[in-house]
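Re: folding output
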Amino acid sequence: MGPGHPSAVPREAISALYPLPMRWSEMRTRLLGALLVALVWGTTSWSQPLAVSGSLGIEVTFTPIPPADITSAITLGLTFGRAEIVSRTELSLAGLLAQYLTVGVSLDGVALRSGLRFDPCFSRYWFEVRGGCCPLELGGLFLVENLALACQTPNYTVGIVLDLGVAWRPGFFARSVTGFGVTDVYGLIDLEPGTWLTAVPGVWFEETLLNLGFAGACFRTDGLVLFVPYGLAWFELGGSYLYPDPEAELGVRIRILGTFALDWAKLFFGVRVPPVAVRLVTTFDLGGFLAQDVAVEVSFSWVRIYSRTRFDFGGLIQAIVGIELKF
């Protein structure tokens, strides 16, 4: 880029300087348009009456670790038959942190989902397709992300995730998730809402995650292995027992680094006696206790109230409190 403020450069010169974001913008618009067409078609093509439902959630997060911070999130979800739209707005004391918009539709064995993130300027677009026929499951995800700081000169990159799996329920299952231009593919299968992919420069191989295991009515055991370009990064082994009445779960999980050193070990216990559910996760390493996570949930009728707290010997690490209303 030449010297001087961009506003002093003619519009034609700016277009010549930044051609890639413009092409990605067009691609993003076309893919979103195709998904919206599928969504509209999916909500109007069934002969049965269209069922409409939704949810509204408010969540507050307190992090006392300096600099202490309080953030909040407002989530609105609407479902029209097999189609859904979800909006999530994250706020801090300084103002808007991020805005997420996700749309999705299920079309007889094929699921399409797409999303945008603004923080507050455009920072991410992704498109995902999943499908298959039992026991085979196939999936793919395409990602465009701006690596630059919020609302600064764009620095776009792309990422691709290939997801292949086979599963018998109950029975054995196997899954392979490979990321090109993205890391933290573990965030796609760990069922934690706060974890997801991390985009990196380039569209090269970054990670492959293998998940093998067996799931029965009362018992589950599995292993996870993560490979990166230089070899083995880590592997996990875990197992849990499920008791049906009252609903309870007791399990253990351990992660070993590629150097065969212990990363952490977790003991978890959960119990649900309607309308209350409690889950405890205790994390250790070779030095002893690391952290304790406590999750409590109360659900009745159309209301769900929940909290998640994490602390160690030094005190509180993070506390989350939320409420969700269904309609």
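--- second protein (sequence, then structure) ---
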Amino acid sequence: MSNRTLPRLLQSPAVVLLLIWMLVPLSMTLYFSFIRYVLNNLRKPEWMTPALSNWRGFGNYEFVLKSKDFIFAIQNSLLIVCSILFLTVILGVLIAVLINKSFPGQGIVRVLLISPFFVMPAVNAVLWINMILDPVLGLQGIAVGSINDLVDGLRAAPGVGWFFSLWPELTPISFRATQTSAYAVIIMVTWQWTPFAILIFMTSLQSEDQQQKEAAILDGASTWSQFRFLTLPHLGRPIAIVVMIQAIFHLSLYAEIEIVSRGNGNKNLPYLIGEFANNNIGAASATGIFAVILANIVAIFLLRIVGKTLME
């Protein structure tokens, strides 16, 4: 037995199990997407079984493409994912650079900053939509009401009353509404995933070359110049990795959208799959294949970015 045969034999059970774990669900989804498979249909009871005799071809894909929510779900998926990526990267870089300096209580601050990442998505959504973003009982409603009361009191003050009389009365935003529910999802997911970016960037900053920064200081480089030409290039690879990992995860968001809006004006592809899966398994499977294609396109695009960054 050669030196390579034994390691391959030892690895083969895990490889076979992984292939089964991946290929069986994907194959079933692909098969269901080409047949008429409806869970509850009294007119056509034969459609209630996933038989090959119910072959429909590309009919399910055509049905999904003509669905009024399909294009909107893709657009909303890209809006949510791109917004979260932009905010988490910006906030992650700024906070990581800020806490990279030595100060009293640095360890406690780092633990507190990372802790939101360990909150379950459903719990995160419930806390934000009820305790913070609620226009009546949440912190938003309390803050807006307090500001309005303060402005009302200052309107009667001598000397400055005329100025505050020009201020309009603030109205709390209902983040459960059709137009704003996507923004609520972006806010709460950004809060939860920014610590992940902070952790990656903070780890990378530990290996930054301090001699280069000292030389830049001696040459009279400003703080912004050091950040622009030394710190940001050093964070290029971690930023690319954070973008790739988060994009894959955020394309499958479901719990936050369900809790915030129940899909009212705020749907992505996973939520659309859930709606179809209540009865029409064929359409849900076709939507799942579209989601796989979209995820692969995004992953390939981001992997090219990561590969290009690593080669530089």
